[in-house]
Amino acid sequence: MFRTAFHAWLRRAIVAAVVAVVVLPIEASQAGWLQKIFKGSSKQDDTQARHAASQKSAKHTDSQKPPTAKLAALGPIMLPALKPAATTCDPANFRIVVDVGHTKESDGAMSARNVPEFDFNLNLARRIEEKLKSDGFAATRLLVTDGKARPSLFTRVAAAQRLQANLFLSIHHDSVPDRLLENWEFEGKASHFSDRFSGYSVWVSHDNPDFKTSLAFAELLAREMKAQGLDYAHQYTQPIMGRYQHPLLNKETGVYSHDELVVLGKTRIPAVLLEAGSIINRDEELKMSSPEHQNITASAVAMAAKEFCDARWSILGPL
Asked: Is 317 left (phi over 0), alpha (psi -120 to 50) or beta?
């Protein structure tokens, strides 16, 4: 009977500990909350306390242990893993600029079915903007730029500064080097495709003045993309990519570095580029066109933004 009552008490205490992690600020979760929850509330506690008092030196040593060591003493109890909050922000005032990659005049890659990348970028960016606003990021701004390719890059950098953005997210869709393309015909028109490669990728630049924060958001976004069941593009680590080969910063989630990208390196705020998927891959192109898949990507962006502002969101996992 004693063992049964004690186990029931322990289960209640563990649940209370988990709740405490969720509802208290991260700093408070490491400031002795566990000791307060487990503070004597029964005769069994008093017995244990008297036993501990007889071993004063051991108790003193234990008091110096970090919270993780105290948790380990309880046995294999699985509590949610917490990471320190790198940033905190108020979503209502946190301004994310969602940049539509390329322009109508310089519309990027051509899909396997002859749709310009700019169209894919615009459709997805609009859906991301809507999702962010509906999830509380009311200050989100959609950035659509005109003009030729290279001048438009510096226009974007200036716009992000003018909009007083806190985070710059550029939306793109992927292709492959021309030499890897294959020929086919779609609706009577000569077209090109490459079904060898697929997947999303997330990019940052070491030249960004706030590389650390850029990388922090990139990691969150890539993790959420993966949590949605998506695979990242592995080809950028392969010699076959030639000059398009780039360092992979996280082999688990698909975060790459590209230090020559103007919109990542020249902006004076944290900046991340998302290649949502490959539109030169015939199967993936169809996915990129579907509202369902666009919603999945938009949800991943919104969840990453929530975690970026408040690390406690990571406890809930992908929604």
From this structure: left
112 in Cβ contact with 71 (< 8 Å)? no
Token output for 35 = 């000791």
Structure-token pair, residue 312: 């406690």
Residue 84 lies in a domain: no
Residue 301 · residue 294 · CB < 8 Å: no
Helix boundaries (H) for the chain: 2-23, 33-37, 43-53, 56-63, 67-72, 117-134, 149-162, 211-227, 262-265, 282-289, 291-309
Q: How far apart, in whole angstroms, are the C-alpha atoms of residue 16 and residue 14?
A: 5
Measured N-to-C along each axis, helices 43-53 and 56-63 cross at an angle, to the nearest 10 degrees, of: 100
Do residues 48 and 100 both lie within one domain?
Answer: no
Residue 149 confidence class, pLDDT cut points 50, 70, 90:
very high
Token pair in block for residue 162: 């003018």
The separation between CA 316 and the C-alpha centre of its own chain, rounded to angstroms, equals 14
CATH of the domain at 139: 3.40.630.40
Same domain for 134 and 36? no
Predicted pLDDT of residue 248:
98
Range of the domain at 61: 2-72
pLDDT at 212 over 90: yes
157-177 average pLDDT score: 97
Phi, psi for residue 19 in degrees, rounded to 5: -60, -40
How many helices and strands in the chain, by DSSP H and E? 11, 9
Distance CA 21, CA 80 (A): 8
pLDDT digits (tens, 9 = 90+) for 101-132: 999 999 999 999 999 999 999 999 999 999 99
Nearest in space to 228 (alpha carbons), one of 265, 203, 199, 196? 199
What pLDDT is attached to residue 91? 95
